Amino acid sequence: MLLMAMMLAFGAPQGGAASPPSADLSEPGAPATNPGGWVTNDDYPPQAMREEREGVTGFRLTYDNSGLPRKCEIVSSSGHADLDAATCDLVMERALFEPGKDRTGMAVGGTYTNRIRWSIPEGAPAMPGPLPFSDPGRMTLQYVLDAEGGVASCEGRVEGLVAPAGDQTAAVDLCQGVEASAPYPPPLDSEGKPVSRRYRMTIEVTTEDIGPRGGVPK
């Protein structure tokens, strides 16, 4: 009888069966569009390109549970404030994410870190700079690149700006340099797909007399 009582005691269930652990549904977030299309050569700040300034900008994006970026931080500077500022402005405008999920499968935000290398593309047209004109005026360059990087059209316009020698044609033939450097890397949209794109640059020239040679402006 004692032996049977011990067997019954050990064989009796010790409470209800344990519940199986719930499945972990967590997933990391990821870019929903190609990060390579967030910042392209077409976005190079004109002043930085004129001065041939390059660098690498490291950034960190914070995005919400809908996948939209809410904050951009520079984690490593290129050494040039305009390149860093352009990086954050562009990725905040163009980046989009597939939000991650927590253990229960609910969408959650997150952070994303990457770098943008600002490098002037080989064969890029020289940016027109101030020329020795005697009168105030304006130069406007407008051109269209097709989806293959070719120059579909180009127009240079000059208002005022009479050169000292009286001939301004050669000095402001802006399209010659643009067309000679084609083809260019194809313009890309926010999803990294080739598109046609119009570019317009305007330079306004002003003059100011500051006195005889060697004089100091006041």
Could you please describe the fold and organization of this structure?
One of its GO terms (biological process) is transmembrane transport. It comes from Sphingopyxis macrogoltabida. This protein folds into 2 domains: 30-118, TolA/TonB C-terminal domain; 137-205, no CATH class. The protein contains 4 helices and 10 strands. The protein has helices at residues 2-11, 46-50, 81-94, 174-180; strands at residues 30-31, 55-63, 69-76, 97-98, 100-101, 107-108, 110-118, 137-145, 151-160, 197-205. Strands 3-2-7 form a 3-stranded antiparallel β-sheet, covered by helices on one side. Strands 9-8-10 form a 3-stranded antiparallel β-sheet, with helices on one face. Strand 8 (137-145) and strand 9 (151-160) form a beta hairpin.
Sketch the topology as an H/E string, one letter per element.
Answer: HEHEEHEEEEEEHE
Silhouette: elongated
Strand order of the largest sheet: 3-2-7
Given this structure, which CATH class of the largest domain is correct? Answer: Alpha Beta
Low-confidence stretches: 1-10, 165-171
The chain-level structural class is alpha+beta
Mean pLDDT score: 80
Helix content: 10-25%
Could you give a short account of the major beta sheet? 3 strands, antiparallel
Estimated radius of gyration: 31 Å
How large is the count of helical segments?
Answer: 4
Q: Total strand count, please?
A: 10
CATH architecture of the largest domain: 2-Layer Sandwich
Strand content: 25-35%
